[in-house]
Write a structure and sequence with these properties.
Elements (H helix, E strand, L loop, with lengths): L10 E6 L3 H17 L2 E8 L1 H9 L4 H22 L3 E7 L10 H12 L3 E4 L13 H12 L4 E3 L1
Parallel strand pairs: 1-2, 1-4, 2-3, 4-5
């Protein structure tokens, strides 16, 4: 007889970057949350080009916020259709002043802060735009190697 506790999930973290691949990852996160009666937290990780563009004044912060909110609106519809609770946040995946700040540790730090039980993230982003290209592609290997919770990479 196995005395181990059953696998439970209360919070699924879905790091996203606005790509089609990250939208697919959210669909998987919602399916897992639905299966375990859990909630989903979508973390939008801003890429290096976006962070630098905002800092340099070449990208309008309002335009970035509008694009991010549009993506969250789409994600919200997916969660609503499944009856899954969704929360969202945005974080910079890079820093001009902290070398240790990169998308992988942003994902893991957020997972720890939320006490997430499961992470679902896209393995590759093929989006061409500087706004999101390769943001989570670079993070996937790091998260897979260092996460303390189960990770599904799609």
């Amino acid at each position: 007889m196995d005395d181990s506790e059953p696998f439970t999930v209360d919070t699924v973290l879905a790091p996203v970057d606005g790509s089609d691949e990250s939208a697919t990852a959210v669909e998987y996160a919602v399916a897992i949350a639905d299966r375990y009666d859990a909630s989903v937290h979508a973390l939008f990780v801003l890429g290096h080009g976006v962070v630098r563009g905002i800092d340099a004044g070449t990208l309008e912060e309002d335009a970035v916020a509008e694009n991010t909110q549009g993506f969250f609106d789409d994600v919200s519809r997916v969660a609503d259709d499944a009856g899954v609770s969704l929360s969202t946040s945005v974080d910079d995946g890079f820093s001009q002043t902290r070398k240790s700040r990169h998308p992988g540790n942003v994902v893991l730090d957020t997972a720890d802060t939320l006490d997430a039980d499961f992470i679902v993230l896209p393995r590759e982003s093929v989006t061409d735009t500087a706004a999101s290209a390769e943001v989570l592609e670079k993070a996937a290997e790091y998260v897979l190697a260092y996460a303390s919770q189960p990770v599904l990479s799609v």
